From TrEMBL:
Gene3D superfamilies: Aspartate Aminotransferase, domain 1 (3.90.1150.10), Type I PLP-dependent aspartate aminotransferase-like (Major domain) (3.40.640.10), Winged helix-like DNA-binding domain superfamily/Winged helix DNA-binding domain (1.10.10.10). Signal peptide: none annotated. It comes from Micromonospora carbonacea. GO terms for molecular function: DNA binding; DNA-binding transcription factor activity; pyridoxal phosphate binding; transaminase activity. This is PLP-dependent aminotransferase family protein.
């Protein structure tokens, strides 16, 4: 079923469309068409969505139907709208332009490159002692085959205890250890999504999740996030679930990647209820849940509101600890965990025992490790926002209350061009279109604050120089960036 935007919903998204730059030089219909194109470019208005009828939108905007008719005509002529008599009009992009979200590669070992494509921290100092302690624990496992499809019991107990401490009672039987959060997502998709199934995701969202969905040949629909602190539009998100009735919805409610938004508790409860009513399973990515900043209080886990085993939570060690420790997990009902273990046999059998034991020791020291991470990240976030305010004041930034990334609104649709130019001056970027579908989000850029403050300031200085010369320079040669994480 095609999702539809009602007239009142589109009017709210358009906001003060008649006051946009250049408004006085354009007739009403051209300004309205330009505002709709802007929503599509930003990813706030998904592709393939049916727009309201002309009369309905005219009433919502309190303008003449003739103006809306002319705006829709201009959108059709520019390739942003497809219409069929008696059936309505759907959003699209001109031609066959599409930006893929895949393109993973092995990063170059270039010490002069400031890599802002990967949002991950270096290992904490506690990692080496944890590895030594894990090696001392290993002998008691050497007498067995070493295959633990759901994970060693010590780690499952530690992860379950973490959920319980967050107010979500969890038993070890509800935990399955995986080889990272991405592996957890892949296993859940193998179990819960048939090839070609319909999936709802946020826009923007995590590129490697889009890659996993593409591998399942999923039919992806999107819910556009606001650029301000509000994040999710509850009316539109719940409407997408009720109308589209997707098989799965993949959401990142805790410091969303890349925007840093934090979903409020009331919306979490409503999303779970809407998912149950629509027959939609919710895959909740909690990769950043351990990283609230500035004393931000976290809402209850989404699964707290689940009474029908509709919520599957995934998380891991990569963001708060170290990406090189490939440990993730799934929290679900005990029967779902057993089905995941059966599906896993065709993939990798089990996660490495030694890595799991390292994770056990790190989680035992979690309060101290995570507190230090939060202090470090808050300082680096502030250093990055200060540098952007000084060197690139026309870029709009809302400092997140947690996570590891800024979602920056640029001064024009230049994200991909900026990434190409920045590569030449030793800065690797993750341009906005990587976080969406079909070439949108060109006015946005994700900037992680996981590097030292000095590196972040240097990177911003180089970006400022590139931005100044971008419109004057020729198109540089550029190789596709490697990993976005």
């Amino acid at each position: 079923m095609t999702s539809q935007v009602r007239g009142t919903q589109l009017a709210r998204l358009l906001g003060q469309w008649h006051a946009l730059p250049g408004r006085r030089r354009s007739p009403d219909y051209a300004a309205l068409a330009g505002a709709v194109r802007g929503l599509l470019a930003d990813g706030r208005l998904p592709l393939g969505v049916r727009l309201p009828a002309e009369r309905e939108l005219a009433e919502a905007l309190r303008i003449s139907r003739t103006t809306v008719t002319a705006a829709y005509r201009q959108l059709r002529e520019s390739g942003h709208l497809a219409s069929r008599r008696g059936a309505g009009s759907w959003t699209m992009l001109p031609g066959t332009h599409r930006v893929a979200s895949t393109g993973l590669w092995t990063p170059l070992d270039d010490r002069d490159m400031i890599d802002l494509g990967v949002a991950a921290l270096a290992a904490p100092p506690e990692l080496l002692p944890a590895a030594r302690a894990a090696a001392e624990d290993l002998p008691r496992y050497l007498g067995g085959a070493g295959y633990h499809p759901t994970g060693v019991i010590e780690l499952r107990e530690a992860v379950a205890a973490g959920y319980t401490a967050r107010g979500l009672p969890t038993s070890p039987d509800q935990i399955m250890v995986t080889s990272g959060t991405q592996h957890a997502l892949d296993l859940v998709l193998r179990l819960a999504l048939a090839p070609g199934g319909n999936v709802l995701v946020e826009s923007p969202t995590y590129p490697n999740a889009l890659a996993a969905l593409a591998a399942r040949r999923a039919r992806i629909t999107t819910h556009g996030l606001a650029t301000d602190a509000a994040g999710w539009d509850a009316d539109l998100l719940l409407g997408s679930l009720r109308q589209g009735r997707p098989k799965l919805a993949y959401l990142i409610p805790d410091f969303q990647n890349p925007t840093g938004h934090l979903m409020p508790a009331e919306l979490r409860e409503r999303v779970v209820a809407a998912g149950h009513a629509a027959g939609t399973d919710l895959v909740i990515d909690e990769s950043f849940v351990d990283l609230p900043l500035d004393g931000t209080e976290l809402p209850p886990p989404v699964a707290t509101f689940d009474r029908h085993s509709r919520v599957i939570s995934i998380g891991g060690m990569s963001k708060p600890y170290w990406g090189g420790l490939r440990i993730g997990w799934v929290r679900a009902s005990a029967p779902q965990v057993q089905r995941l273990a059966a599906a896993r046999v065709g993939v990798d059998m089990a996660s490495p025992v030694l890595d799991q034991l390292v994770a056990v020791h790190l989680l035992a020291d979690a309060p101290a490790i995570v507190a230090a991470r939060r202090t470090q990240l808050a300082a680096q976030r502030d250093a990055l926002t200060d540098a952007l305010a000084r060197r690139l004041p026309d870029w709009r930034v809302t400092a997140p209350r947690g996570g590891v990334t800024l979602w920056v609104e640029l001064d024009g649709p230049i994200s991909s061009a900026l990434a190409r130019a920045a590569e030449e001056v030793g800065v690797r970027l993750a341009p906005g279109p990587r976080f969406g579908l079909d070439g949108t989000l060109e006015r946005f850029l994700r900037l992680p604050f996981t590097l030292p403050a000095a590196d972040l300031a240097e990177a911003v200085g180089r970006l400022a120089a590139v931005r100044y010369d971008l419109d004057r320079a020729g198109r540089p040669r550029w190789q596709e960036p490697a990993v976005i994480a």
